[in-house]
């Protein structure tokens, strides 16, 4: 097993006084290795109270929390009313690192969880903050045992096939933005039952059936990761606060540590060398160039075809960008580069229109934070960052439609002329 250990946040130990010296001495003597797992629902007041009661009763040396360092800092800052920085988002680096999809998914999930939390009067992650607060009050150290959220989302997205990704995206958008109010109300009324084993097994079963690979990366891998971290603390008295969906998996991994993958493998982001998506991505520009080249070598006039191809790509990107409510400057830039990006498998017209849109809108970290604090779908879609993301998607879709429309009036006639000699 890897020697990796979770981040430990040390709390300041109280100096014994006449009032608490006897109590401190008793606690010191009864500290034996022990692990207590507290399963929670993330927007449940009942769960928050259960966490508090358990820690006060157990008085552990360490309180382990289902958070990574980034999420912990974000929750603490939000609880303290700290405003996000005015730092601008570097969209160029964001596009290079392929984190755009991760950002979109993360933002929508945060928005969804906050809205549900508001309905029941509990902020998402409040039970984790309560665990940290009581840990500090009882002089326990805090261990952050979860995997980095960016790694988790990247591995989840990469693990899924096209069908699973489409179903996953459809499910998130449908339930978050257009979900049935009665269904949401029923879920919120029974949120505390999500810690019930039978209810939980049914919910997790639906997810596992809909997306087996996504389930593995989002749930089972994190079970292994958190179990590994808890095993490094096995000589301590620990209370672990985790989502109810992870309790059974963590317990199974702790009982069978040989089944846990190495941490290096659980945190690796593999770049697939070959996939159907990549084959299509590289094949389209190759076929377009090859088609025009063969026609030219056979003496066929390709001037009209090239003009058609350029015009359709330009118009498609321009219209798609404007439909996504971009500024005119962004739409023009996306349109100008559209024909070139179609012929380059590693470029997309939407990236260029998105970069201009981000610059014109002065998108910063505050816009990212504001996404999860929107009060309506309209406000969510009008957020500066979301506007930029929509421009990226709209330009790319428009360009793709434009190129697709050239098939019957440009490429099929060319193929007919080449084939017919």
Query: Largest beta sheet, briefly?
Result: 5 strands, mixed
In terms of DSSP E residues, the strand content is: 5-15%
Indicate the radius of gyration in whole angstroms: 27 Å
Give the low-pLDDT segments. 14-30, 190-203
Q: What is the number of E strands?
A: 5
With strands numbered from the N-terminus, the spatial order across the biggest sheet is: 1-4-3-5-2
Average predicted local confidence, pLDDT: 81
Chain oligomer state? single chain
- Output the number of helix runs: 20
**In percent, how helical is the residue content?**
55-70%
The first-to-last residue Cα distance is 66 Å
Structural class: mainly alpha
Helix and strand sequence? EHEHEHHHHEHHHHHEHHHHHHHHH
List keywords for this structure.
elongated, single chain
Overview of the molecule:
It is a single chain. The chain is mainly alpha-helical. It folds into two domains: 8-83 and 122-165 and 190-266, no CATH class; 276-415, no CATH class. The protein is built from 20 helices and five strands. It has helices spanning 21-30, 45-58, 69-79, 91-96, 100-120, 126-137, 149-159, 162-177, 181-189, 197-210, 212-231, 244-255, 263-266, 276-297, 303-323, 328-342, 349-361, 365-371, 377-382, 384-420, and strands spanning 8-9, 34-40, 62-65, 141-144, 237-243. It has a five-stranded mixed sheet. α15 packs across α16. It is elongated and about 85 Å long. Residues 14-30 and 190-203 have low confidence and may be disordered.
